[in-house]
């Protein structure tokens, strides 16, 4: 059997990778490259498909995973490490919108054989749209203004105070944050015999409402009002 050719496990000093957000590749991921190389490229693609399905919302079929990794003589810890590394590579690449060809080149720089990198990236490219849709739904969403109330406090006179403070404005904002509906699952666990323990899934959807109240001086309120009015005029002109 001829082993596939692969590059050195040590990337050039100072190398940055797009799938890592233009940062160094984490050491733990780099350490798993040689482990992934023990599989055939065909079986690796099937393993990647299993991992992608779990990211999108399904479950990993561990019985199938053990069959795929049996030839490489993976132990239980090896299986978990491989799944974690592939999950990181796929998730991070999708979040940073890395195309399949670029990802393949970067994985080869890390020492993954060309055939294996190509197999991983083909499965990645086939599911890229679904992955990006998922991560977009899970991304940061800014709250919207549902309601606002205001109050002006001004003391006209007082026998207890020598100096009357300037007017102040109290604003009470009601903010609403929509949490997208998604499947929240409990990852399947492996027991000591390497058997998968069934996971549970539950769909959750909710809208979170919060109140923000603050007090500002009349001068600061006038400045804030002027800035908001200017922003409103700009938006109206668009």
Automatic annotation (TrEMBL):
It comes from the Eukaryota. InterPro entries: COMM, COMMD4/6/7/8. It holds the Pfam family COMM_HN. Residues 144-238 form the COMM domain. This is COMM domain-containing protein.
């Amino acid at each position: 059997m001829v082993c596939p050719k692969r590059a050195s496990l040590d990337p050039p000093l100072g190398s940055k990778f797009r799938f890592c957000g233009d940062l160094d590749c984490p050491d733990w991921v780099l350490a798993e490259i040689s482990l992934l190389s023990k599989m055939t490229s065909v079986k690796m693609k099937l393993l990647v498909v299993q991992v992608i399905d779990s990211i999108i919302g399904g479950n990993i079929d561990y019985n199938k995973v053990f069959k795929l990794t049996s030839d490489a003589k993976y132990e239980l810890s090896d299986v978990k490490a491989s799944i974690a590394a592939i999950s990181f590579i796929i998730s991070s690449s999708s979040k940073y919108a890395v195309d399949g060809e670029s990802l393949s080149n970067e994985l080869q720089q890390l020492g993954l054989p060309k055939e294996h990198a190509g197999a991983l990236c083909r499965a990645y490219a086939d599911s890229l749209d679904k992955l990006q849709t998922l991560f977009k739904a899970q991304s940061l969403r800014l709250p919207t203004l549902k309601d606002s109330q205001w109050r002006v406090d001004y003391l006209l006179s007082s026998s207890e105070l020598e100096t009357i403070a300037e007017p102040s404005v109290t604003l009470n904002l009601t903010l609403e944050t929509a949490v997208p509906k998604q499947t929240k699952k409990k990852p399947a666990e492996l027991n000591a015999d390497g058997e998968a323990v069934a996971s549970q899934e539950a769909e959750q959807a909710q809208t979170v409402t919060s109140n923000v109240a603050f007090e500002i001086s009349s001068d600061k309120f006038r400045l804030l009002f002027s800035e908001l009015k200017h922003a409103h005029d700009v938006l109206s002109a668009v």
